[in-house]
Specification:
With 230 residues, the protein is α/β, with parallel strands linked by helices. The protein is built from nine helices and twelve strands. A five-stranded parallel beta sheet has the order 2-1-3-4-5, with helices on both faces. Strands 6-7-8-9 form a four-stranded antiparallel beta sheet. α1 links the parallel β1 and β2. The longest helix is centred in the middle third of the chain and has 15 residues. The radius of gyration is 20 Å and the shape is elongated. The two termini are 18 Å apart. Bound molecules: calcium ion. The site of calcium ion has 5 residues, from loops.
Length: 230
């Protein structure tokens, strides 16, 4: 899993960024201040990419960037700059950032920039993610063309079902709440009922289970949610 540090003092923007990166297959580490960000980087030396907001209550994003670069040239850095501060781009790049994204940005734009930098950095530690496959026999999930096969036989999935499977296979053996699944797959701005999760799980079981009435892979965690049983 590719780890991304998200430094942003505004909770709603940080959550927005985290949600979209999670959907994009990244693991996120959050920080609300520059000081916290530097601490988190020390705790997680495997962070590969950092998103740094500029305007912060303590030391600003440029200073964080400078301090990171003083000892670390490997981590990719993207500055989150405000439109009104045109100079931010230049200053950010001068302090050692690799790229910048101007606020307000769309989820697609942000993910595209992160993907691009991540590709440029290359060399993922986990070959499972790197070659675009998650193998949990008898299942094989191909994250490049978003397909699932069981014993080498393709299982036809909708995009939503694929997203649910991806979440499961990224978290084998972990009990996931229905709300968590809803948020990951449908997004935080989804206004429908959590019941849509159950409906999709039911459909998914028909496709992946040997015996859908007695599920062995997608098990129910009573009063909570579901678990990919490995
Ligand atoms: Ca800010």
């Amino acid at each position: 899993m590719r780890k991304v540090l998200v430094l942003e003092d505004e909770d709603n923007i940080r959550s927005f960024v985290v949600l979209n990166l999670t959907r994009g297959g990244y693991e996120t580490i959050e920080a609300a201040s520059g000081e916290e960000a530097l601490e988190k980087l020390k705790q997680h030396p495997d962070i590969r990419l950092a998103l740094l907001d500029v305007m912060l209550p303590g030391i600003d994003g440029f200073e964080v960037c400078r301090r990171i670069r003083a000892s670390n040239n490997k981590v990719g850095i993207i500055m989150l700059t405000a439109r009104s501060q045109e100079m931010d781009k230049v200053t950010g790049l001068m302090t050692g950032a690799d790229d910048y994204v101007t606020k307000p940005f769309s989820p697609a734009e942000l993910t595209a920039r992160v993907d691009a930098l991540s590709r440029r950095l290359g060399g993922d530690e986990e070959p499972v993610v790197d070659n675009g496959e998650i193998s949990q026999p008898p299942f094989l999930l191909n994250t490049r063309n978003r397909t699932l096969s069981k014993n080498g036989k393709r299982i036809k999935l909708t995009q939503v079902e694929y997203s649910v499977m991806k979440l499961f296979m990224d978290n084998p053996g972990k009990a996931l709440s229905r709300e968590e699944i809803l948020e990951f797959v449908w997004g935080r701005d989804y206004y429908g009922e959590v019941k849509i999760v159950d409906v999709n799980i039911r459909r998914l079981r028909l496709k992946v289970e040997d015996d859908p009435t007695n599920p062995a892979y997608i098990t129910t965690v009573w009063g909570f949610g579901y678990k990919w049983g490995f």
